Amino acid sequence: MSTNINCLCGKKRLNLNDTNWKRHLTSCSIAKLKKSNVVNDVSSFFTIKRKIYEERDSPKKVTFAIKNEDIPPSSIEENDTEHTQHNYLICQNSNSENIEPEQFVRDLCDNRESSTVSKAIESTNLTGNNYESKFPNDPSKIPDNVSHTLLHYFMEMGPCQPCPFDLLNNIYPKSLDSSGFSRSFHQSYFHKSLSDGKLVKRIWLSYSPILDKIYCTTCKLFGLSKIKKNKFVANGSNDWKNLKRTIEVHESIPEHLQAEISRGLYISNLRLDLTLLRSVNNQVATNREIVLAVIQILIYSARQNIPLRGHDEQITSQNQGNFLELVKLISKYHPSLNNHLDKINNTTKENRLTFLSNRSQNNLLKIIGDMIRTNILDQVKKSQLFAVIIDTTTDISNQEQFSLVLRYVNDDGIIEERLGALETATDGTGMGLFHAFKNITEKYDINWREDLCAQSYDGAASMQGEYSGLRTLIQKENPRALYIWCFAHQLNLVIVDTCDCCEDTRNFFGEVQSLVAYMRARKRTAVFVNCQKEMNPTERVRRLKHFSDTRWTSHGRVIDVIHLKYKELLKTLSVLKESNDRVTASTAKSLIITITTFEFVLSMILLKNIFNITTPLSNYLQSKSLDFIQALKLVDSCKVKLTGMRSEEECDSIINEAKIFARTHKLDDDLPSNFKSVRMRKKKMPGENTQDQIPESPIERYRKNTFYKVLDQIIMSINSRFSDAREILKDLCLLSPERLLKFSKEKKPLPVDCFNYISNWVKGIDTASLRLEYIQFSSSLSELLTGLNLSTKLHGDNNKSNYNELLNANISSDEDDEEINDISFGEGTENVINIETILHVLSNYTLVAAFPNLYQAFKALGTIPASSASAERSFSKVKLIKTRLRSTMQQERLESLMLISCERDISIDTNEVLNIFGKSSDLLKKALLFK
Asked: Which residues does the UniProt record annotate as the domain HAT C-terminal dimerisation (predicted)?
C-alpha cells in the first residue's frame, strides 16, 4: 500500500486503510479551504486572454486555458512534445450552454466526469464515419487473415499516419485518462530519434482516425500468430498516458523484429512466397509458349488436311506420325519446346502434362472449331436473314454425314456461304433429316422459323419430296422458306438427258466409256504417256479421266482429251494391238476400228462444241457468291447460245470441222462413205413405184436424227427443269439490276401490287416505303455506279466477268482442282452489275440507313442460293480428312477438322484458344494461367 499520498492539509496516509483515509479527506476543513481558494483565484491562471468568437445564428463557443503547472507533474512524461511545445491546454466547447471555468477546474480536481466535462471532451472526438473513404488504409480495417491480394493492397497504400490538418478541427481527438487529464495522440510519435539525433520514420506505426487508436501494421500483416494475438496489434491502443513506453517496449520484442524483417523482404521482392510465385509464373509462361506452338501445328495440319496421328507414336518409332514429327521439327527452332521434349524423353516417370496426347489434340481442335462456328453464327444472327444448303453423303465408314451450310449477307454487303455443322444422320428419310436439322438449330440457337428465307437441295426424294420431303416439312413451319433446286444438279441432268436422247450419242458415250476403262490399266497408261512424250515432248502429258456422276464436267473433259491427243491415242492402241495378251490385243484392235469411224469423229466434234458452252456454265453455277437472278440469266444465255447452234449453217460447220479433223489425222479420203450404210426399204404397196422414193443421204440422216434431236432435247430440258425457278423470278424480277437501270431510264409507273410478294416473303418490309426507295435509288444508280470501281474484286472471287467471256473462256479440260473459284474468266469485270454489286453500293456509300427496306429486299434476294455446291465441296473435304486409314475418327474431331479446313479464311485468336484450354481442368489451369 502506498504511503506517499498526502492530503491538502499535509497529513500522510501512511498505514490508513481506504475507509479511514476517505473519511479524513471528507472531513478535512483545511483541504476544503484550500480548494475554495483555488476556485476564488482561478482568474489568476488566465495569463493570456482568449477572444470569444460569437457568430450569428451559431452556438456560442467558450475558450479557456489552464496552465501546465496546474497539471500534476506525474501526468506528464519526459520529452512529451504535446506539453513541452504548448504552454496551455486549449479546451473548446461547441455546445450552446456556457461553461464556468471554475466548475470545469473543480470537476477536474474532483476527478468527476460530469455531464459538462463529458460534453466538452466529446466535442473534440471525431466520428469514424467521416474517415471511411478518406483513409482507406486505416489499420482497423485490416482483417485477421490477410490474403495475398489484400496484403499487396495495404503495402501499396503504406502506413496510415495522418497529420492534424487531415482531421476534424485540425487536431487529434482528446480523451480523459485514468488521472482525469485530457490527452491525445501526437504526430511526433511517427518518428523515432536515434542516438545521433537523426529522426527515422516508424513505418510499422499506424494511427486509426476511425477508432482513435494506434496499431502495429507490420505485425498485423507479417507477424506470426503469437504476435497477432497481442492486444496492441489486434485491438490497438489509446493509452496516451503510457504511449511512449508502449511504443518502445513493442518495437524491441523479438516477434516485432521478425515481422519487420519479413516486411523488408517483401518490399525488396525477396520473400519466399513471391520467389515461388515468380518461379511458377515463369513455368506458366514457358508452358504457354509450348502450347501456342502446338496450336499452330494443329491449325496448319487441319487446314492442309494432313493426318495427325501415326501408326506407332512411341519414342522408339522411326515415324511417329505427322503431328509429332512436326513438333520435333519445330522444336529445333523453338528452345522451350525442345527442352519440353527432352524432359519427356529423358524421364522414366509418366508425365501428366505433355500437351501432345490425343486428348489434348481433341480438346484444342474442338475449341478452335467452336470459335470458328461462333464467329459464323454471330454474323448470321446479325444478318437476321439466312438460307440453308443441306446434303448428305456416306463416308468411308458407311456413316451418313449430314452437312449444313449457311448462306447470308454480312455487314459489308458480301454474300457468304459457311459450313455450320457436320452431324451423323441415322435416318436418311425426309423426317429423319428434318429431325437432324432441328437438333442442329436448337443446339446452336438458330432461329430458322423466323429468319430462314430459302433452302437449296439436290433432287433426291428425301430432300424435295412433295409430301414427306425435307423442304415440305420445313415449309410447314416456315412458309417463307423458298425451295431452290440446285441449278448445277439440274444442268447435270440436262446433260444426262442429252447423252441418251438418240442412238448416235448413246453409242458414242458407250464407246468412250469402254475406251476409258481400257486405258486405265497401269501398263496401258504407261504406253499412252510414252507415246505423248515421243510425239510431243514439249506439250503437257494428259490422261483419260473417269466418267463420274457427281463431277458434272467429267464428260466434257474426257472428250477434250480424246480430241487433243487423238494421234497419241491411235499410236497407243496400235502398240497395244501387238501385245502378247490376247484380250489386250483384240480390244485394242476393236477400239481402233471404233474411234476411226466418221460417226465417232462427228459425234465427238458435236458434243465438244456443246460442252464448250455447258461446262463453263456448270463451273460458274457452283460459285458461292452467285445470286439467284444472275444464275437464271446465265442459264438463259446458255439456252440462247444453244438455240443459235440449231441451224443448217452450224450443222454444216460441224460436219466440215469433222472432215478437216479426219483428213488431218489421215483417217480416209472418202469421208461420207464412212457413215454406216443402211439398207433402203422399197415400198411394195399397190399403185406405188419404187422410183418415186428419194434416197436419204447419211449426212441428212445424221442432221435429222442426231444433230437437231440433240439440240432440241437439251433446249427442252433447260426449259422444263428450270421452270420452277422462273416462277420465283416473276415475283422478284423488279429487283434485278437490269430492270432497275431500265426503270431509271424509262420512268414508267410501277404496278400497284409489284412489291406485295416481297413484303409477304421478308418480314419487316413496308411496301409503300419500298416503292419510294426503289424509285429514288433507281434514279441515282448510274451516278453511284460511276463513282464505284467495279473492276475491284469485292471479296476475292474471280467470278465477276460477263457471260460472253465466260462462254468463250478456254478452260483446260484436265483441271485437277474442282473448286471453280480458282478459275479465271478473263477481263471486263467492270461491266458486271449483280445483286452483290447493289449491296456493295449501299454499304460502300453508307446508304443502308437511308434505304432500309430496299437494302433488306436486296439482302433477301442475295441470300437465295442458286446451287448446293458448297455442301458438295464439304463432302470433298470429308473424303480428304476421313480416309481409309482414318476411318475410326470420332465425329466431334471430324467436325472440328472440317470447320478449320473449310473456313480457313476466318482468323483464329490463339491466345484465346490457349486461355479456354487452360480453364478446362484444374491441372491445366495451374499450368497455363498466370497467378
From this structure: 850-902
